[in-house]
Amino acid sequence: QVKLVESGGGLVQAGGSLRLSCEASGSISDVNTMGWYRQAPGKQRELVATISSGDVTNYADSVKGRFTISRGDAKNTINLQMISLKPEDTAVYYCNIKFRFAMWRDYWGQGTQVTVSS
């Protein structure tokens, strides 16, 4: 069983900063991709940023230059540093991990709310 626990969401004014963290535990391949996705009310879940076990990163165009994803010191942890936040960044942010153990595995955290006020 794989479990993901997110932390760091909250309420911030436009232009402010927040840092999200996620820790994955359980039977996880050393070769994996972790990432953040978000879902705003009435919208589909969308990719924010991902990072591979080889530290290759990928960002949505809407967050490039403002958000930075990184691997934490502990194994299978990631962080998302968000600066210059905008009201349109308001959403529930979900942590995700993907890896292959005989077949592709895909796990999600419960989500953490990020609210940016104007």
In short:
This protein is mainly β and 118 residues long. It has no helices and eleven strands.
Offer a few descriptive terms.
118 residues, mainly beta, seven-stranded mixed sheet, four-stranded antiparallel sheet, 0% helix, 58% strand, globular
Strand content: over 45%
Count of helices? Answer: 0
Q: Identify the overall geometry.
A: globular
Number of E-type strands: 11
Largest β-sheet summary:
7 strands, mixed
In round numbers, the mean pLDDT is 96
Q: Give unreliable regions as ranges.
A: none
Rg (CA only): 14 Å
Order of helices and strands: EEEEEEEEEEE
Q: Ends: how far apart?
A: 40 Å
What do you see in this structure?
The protein is mainly β. Helices cover 0% and strands 58% of the residues. The protein is built from no helices and 11 strands. Strands 2, 4, 5, 6, 9, 10 and 11 form a 7-stranded mixed beta sheet that branches. A 4-stranded antiparallel beta sheet has the order 1-3-8-7, with no helix packed on it. Strand 5 and strand 6 form a beta hairpin. The mean pLDDT is 96.
List the helices and strands and how they pair.
Blueprint: E1 3-7, E2 10-13, E3 18-25, E4 32-39, E5 46-52, E6 57-59, E7 67-71, E8 77-82, E9 91-101, E10 103-108, E11 112-117
Parallel strand pairs: 2-11
Antiparallel strand pairs: 1-3, 3-8, 4-5, 4-9, 5-6, 7-8, 9-10, 9-11
